[in-house]
């Protein structure tokens, strides 16, 4: 199999796995409506349940990235899929709030190694000029799932129920892990001539060097802010539309396909735009996108009708898609491939901490304000403002160790 065909095949498999991972996560946002009734949960308890996955997911980001750099991303990738599949299946057996929280936390631990290891695989198999589009293809799975999950969840949850749904998805994950084990084979060097896996595994001080790199801190903050907005909306909009806008689950399923289409289109378009951006323009593009996100969030919660709310949600998804694609592309393009797994894990920890804190915070805010979501929207608007600052102050200078690694990579190619 030639190298280009091999790269495309690997990307298809990564896309397939991340599609299932997104499905496992997104369906909880709809299943929680039935789970809340079955387990008799308050808004605060529901927020805690929605956040429990992200606690484990955030905790595993840095270890997952380090393990991918140290032992190779293929092993970490397969282990991640097997573990998350086990605990996805066990979600259907939960009998109480405590058991559900523990299972979802362990599910997050399992899935936490996927993005750092898959990003590492992209950096090892794709040239720099193609990494933005490759990352966009993998991340577009989130847009596809966001598109189909409202209708699919309504069909599954109203026919076979939430317990059987999670068991079936767990079984699907085991099949994907087997495909990874059989088909994904990695080259010793990446197409840009970067270091071999053996050289990578012998590196020392990577965490220290990355944490001394100013750009990494900007990325952590930007990841936190944009994922707080993304997951704040994704986890609570179904509940918001039921309780505050009077829609039923089937109606939500249909109206949420519109923002889903936009998210999907936005991610594909973003990958192309990002690969064409001149170096240094990432800051301005990211800052402008976050500005539009803040404005559109305000228009969403002050919208006078469901139609206008969905219209603003549709547009805001375009800008969220761009920022979510831009952040990992910055890592893949500006840092040496030898540290992309660890760097992705560090930066994405910020995003997943947001995923842990934001649903829980919104639950407490809604309870505190007697069912009103206005204060929660203001919180998300404030985070979009912080994200603007993180982009505009982005510093692309690399630490000494990172520069040395990059120079060694090019020396190997020579």
TrEMBL record:
One of its GO terms (cellular component) is plasma membrane. It comes from the Bacteria. Residues 10-399 form the Major facilitator superfamily (MFS) profile domain. CDD domains: MFS_ExuT_GudP_like. Gene3D superfamilies: MFS general substrate transporter like domains (1.20.1250.20). Pfam families: MFS_1. It is a multi-pass membrane protein. One of its GO terms (molecular function) is transmembrane transporter activity. It is found in: Cell membrane. The chain crosses the membrane at residues 39-59, 71-87, 135-160, 166-184, 216-237, 249-272, 284-303, 309-332, 353-369, 375-394. This is MFS transporter. It comes from Pseudobacillus wudalianchiensis.
């Amino acid at each position: 199999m030639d190298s280009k065909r091999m790269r495309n095949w690997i990307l298809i498999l990564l896309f397939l796995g991340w599609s299932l991972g997104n499905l496992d996560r997104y369906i909880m946002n709809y299943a929680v409506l039935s789970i809340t009734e079955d387990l008799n949960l308050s808004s605060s308890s529901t927020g805690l349940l929605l956040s429990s996955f992200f606690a484990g997911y955030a905790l595993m980001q840095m270890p997952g990235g380090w393990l991918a750099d140290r032992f190779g991303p293929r092993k970490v990738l397969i282990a991640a899929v097997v573990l998350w599949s086990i605990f996805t299946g066990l979600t259907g057996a939960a009998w109480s709030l405590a058991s559900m929280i523990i299972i979802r936390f362990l599910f997050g631990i399992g899935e936490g190694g996927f993005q750092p290891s898959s990003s590492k695989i992209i950096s090892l198999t794709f040239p720099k000029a193609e990494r933005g589009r490759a990352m966009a293809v993998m991340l577009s799975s989130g847009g596809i799932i966001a598109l189909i999950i409202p209708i699919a969840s309504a069909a599954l949850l109203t026919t076979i129920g939430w317990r059987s749904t999670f068991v079936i998805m767990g079984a699907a994950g085991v099949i994907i892990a087997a495909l990874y084990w059989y088909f994904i084979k990695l080259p010793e060097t990446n197409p840009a001539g970067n270091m071999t896996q053996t050289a990578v595994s012998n590196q020392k001080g990577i965490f220290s060097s990355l944490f001394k790199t100013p750009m990494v801190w900007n990325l952590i903050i930007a990841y936190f802010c944009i994922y707080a907005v993304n997951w704040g909306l994704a986890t609570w909009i179904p509940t918001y539309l039921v309780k505050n806008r009077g829609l039923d689950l089937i109606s939500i399923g249909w109206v949420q396909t519109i923002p889903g289409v936009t998210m999907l289109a936005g991610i594909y378009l973003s990958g192309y735009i990002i690969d064409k951006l001149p170096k240094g323009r990432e800051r301005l593009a990211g800052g402008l996108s976050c500005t539009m996100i803040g404005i559109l969030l305000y228009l969403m919660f002050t919208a006078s009708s469901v139609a206008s709310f969905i219209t603003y949600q549709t547009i805001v998804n375009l800008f969220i898609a761009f920022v979510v694609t831009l952040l990992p592309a910055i890592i893949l393009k500006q840092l040496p491939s030898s540290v992309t797994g660890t760097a992705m894990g560090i930066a994405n920890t910020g995003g997943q901490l947001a995923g842990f804190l934001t649903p829980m915070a919104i639950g407490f805010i809604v309870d505190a304000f007697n069912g009103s979501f206005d204060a929660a929207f203001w919180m998300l608007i404030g985070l979009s403002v912080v994200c603007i600052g993180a982009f505009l102050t982005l510093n692309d200078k690399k630490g000494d160790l990172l520069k040395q690694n990059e120079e060694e990579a090019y020396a190997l190619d020579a």
